[in-house]
Design brief:
single chain; mainly beta; eight-stranded mixed beta sheet; 1 helix; globular
């Protein structure tokens, strides 16, 4: 089940113009599962894009994740966009992805520096997202 506090919306003039959601997942390692979050989806209405809405959602969402004590965020996304928020190639950190994720799109962010020290394993990313209570 996802945490409602990790589902954020951007509102302008009384209308929702963007949304970001962080879903629980794990990194399966030989010594056990390591909790992480999967960022997705993130969306901004086309007419609101390139106006800072997505960046504001990303910054606010990552800060909320830190406040709640989460340590790792994984995503599948555009390799030219997400590094500005600190995301780096996940394979370089010792993580493997499901086959449907291209190497250059598989990225990770340590919300707590060193959170991936000694973590080597496979990202178990939800294909369907849990329903809210």
């Amino acid at each position: 089940m996802y945490d409602r506090e990790l589902s954020l919306v951007a509102v302008r003039s009384g209308s929702i113009v963007g949304h970001i959601l962080f879903n629980p997942m794990v990194i399966r390692t030989p010594s056990g599962d390591v909790p992480a979050l999967y960022l997705g989806p993130i969306a901004v209405r086309p007419e609101q894009q390139r106006q800072g809405v997505g960046s504001a959602l990303m910054r606010a969402g990552l800060e909320k994740c830190r406040e709640k004590g989460h340590r790792i965020v994984i995503l599948c996304g555009h390799p030219e966009y997400y590094p500005r928020f600190g995301f780096t190639p996940a394979r370089e950190k010792g993580l493997e992805a499901p086959e449907w994720i291209p190497d250059d799109a598989f990225m990770v962010l340590e919300l707590l520096p060193g959170a991936l020290n000694g973590v080597r394993g496979t990202a178990i990313i939800p294909y369907e997202f849990p329903e809210a209570e």
